[in-house]
């Protein structure tokens, strides 16, 4: 029962974090990809392989990030009204 109470908020939080991570990837790598494409138009030193490698990385992250799952590790605390005697 306690695990279930912890799993539900963890799964909800995971979905929020997944969304944020995907947005960050799209923003950062998407901008980098756009930059490379624009730069390649005026600079022949930018190779197509570089653009393709970035596109592959972006696609891999788009596939991997949604697969993230929460991991619940627990520490159990034992409380006593007279906790000083426990030492």
Commentary on this structure:
The chain has 87 residues and is mainly α. The protein has one domain (2-86). The protein is 67% helix and 0% strand.
Give the end-to-end Cα distance, rounded to a whole number of Å: 31 Å
Number of helices: 2
Shape: rod-shaped
Helicity range of the residues?
55-70%
Give the SSE order as H and E letters.
Answer: HH
Mean pLDDT: 86
Number of domain units: 1
Q: Rounded to an integer, what's the Rg over CA atoms?
A: 23 Å
What about the largest sheet?
A: none
Say how many strands there are.
0
> Which residues sit in consecutive blocks of at least 5 with pLDDT less than 50?
none
Percentage of residues in strands: under 5%
Secondary structure category: mainly alpha
Give a quick precis of the structure.
The protein has about 90 residues and is mainly alpha-helical. The protein has helices at about 1-40, 50-65.
What topology does this entry show?
Layout: H1 2-42, H2 48-64
Helix pairs in contact: 1-2
What labels would you give this structure?
single chain; 87 residues; mainly alpha; 2 helices
């Amino acid at each position: 029962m306690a695990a279930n109470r912890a799993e539900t908020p963890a799964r909800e939080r995971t979905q929020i974090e997944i969304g944020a991570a995907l947005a960050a990837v799209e923003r950062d790598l998407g901008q980098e990809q756009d930059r490379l494409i624009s730069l390649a138009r005026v600079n022949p030193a930018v190779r197509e392989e570089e653009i393709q490698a970035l596109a592959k990385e972006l696609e891999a992250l788009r596939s991997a990030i949604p697969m993230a799952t929460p991991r619940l590790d627990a520490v159990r605390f034992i409380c006593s009204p007279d906790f000083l005697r426990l030492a």
